[in-house]
Design a protein that fits this description.
Number of strands: 7
Helix content: 25-40%
CATH superfamily: Vaccinia Virus protein VP39
Number of domains: 1
Number of helices: 9
CATH architecture: 3-Layer(aba) Sandwich
Radius of gyration: 18 Å
Strand order of the largest sheet: 3-2-1-4-5-7-6
């Protein structure tokens, strides 16, 4: 999983709120309605980190959805408290039974490989109203297969969401180029909680189809058959916050990328689909 620091980024507050989700569909309207209740800048990655969970709960309420599957939630799911408090039935997925073993006793779970063959899993077919993930899809070597399975497990009208880091933001380009073992040791040194015995262990990252370009994402998403695909791009991060001058310069550059909608250099993206 990736880390993000939510401290404010200098030089960003003056930029007008980012573009709303495209289209006049019910999903686009629900996303836009939620964004209108929040402070900006809506294009900055901080907004995505701070609002991913409340946006999910807003969409669940807007469409009357109740059964939420957290994909790749493992030992550290995000919706057990908030989802249950909102009246949702929360189920946690992971490929690894040892990760699921860390969950509080009695937590409903569903062990399966998100990119595996689910044709024999009748129990998963159209079983969920929502299938959501945060910092998971960058670890999958076959993202189109994952979205095909999301389509399989969602009920008609169900919503899928994936929030992930994107290429070609330089921190993730570096992470992709480094050998997995080297990248893991660096992260574990900088962030002790990311060690294997901590609460947020490091997993290899592939960044397969992890981009902010709506055109590139639709190229493999449209054939899957979702009725709607929304791609929300975000820019900016805090990896250089301890480097004065360079931090401010990069903040200004990301501000320009956002203003010009340069999808090649997004930092994160949130993909929201409806079956």
């Amino acid at each position: 999983m990736s880390l993000s620091d939510h401290a404010p980024t200098p030089g960003f507050a003056s930029l007008p709120a980012a573009r709303s989700a495209a289209g006049g569909t019910a999903l686009a309207q629900a996303i836009a309605a939620y964004r209108a209740t929040t402070s900006g800048p809506h294009w900055h990655s901080d907004w995505a980190w701070n609002n991913y969970e409340p946006l999910t709960l807003h969409l669940a309420k807007s469409f009357g959805h109740h059964r939420l599957l957290e994909l790749g939630g493992g030992r550290d799911p995000g919706f057990l408290e908030s989802g249950n408090a909102a009246g949702l039935s929360v189920i946690v997925n992971d490929i690894d039974p040892e990760e699921l073993a860390h969950l509080p006793a009695g937590t409903p779970s569903a062990q399966f490989d998100l990119i595996g063959d689910l044709s024999g899993r009748a129990d998963l077919h159209e079983a969920f109203d929502l299938a959501v993930s945060r910092m998971v899809f960058e670890h999958l070597p076959d993202v189109p297969a994952a979205w095909r399975n999301v389509h399989r497990i969602l009920k008609p009208g169900g919503i899928g969401m994936a929030f992930f880091p994107t290429l070609y933001a330089w921190p993730f380009v570096v992470n992709k180029l480094l050998p997995d073992d080297v990248a893991r040791r660096i992260v574990e040194t900088l962030y002790p909680n990311r060690r294997s015995d901590g609460g947020d262990p490091v997993f290899p990252a592939h960044y397969n189809h992890c981009v902010g370009s709506e055109k590139a994402i639709r190229r493999f998403m449209d054939p899957i058959g979702f009725r709607e695909v929304q791609v929300l791009p975000f820019w900016g991060h805090h990896y250089l916050r301890r480097v004065p001058g360079l931090y401010q310069a990069e903040a200004a550059l990301n501000r320009a990328f956002a203003a010009l909608d340069v999808r090649l250099f997004t930092t994160y993206a949130l993909v929201i689909v409806q079956k």
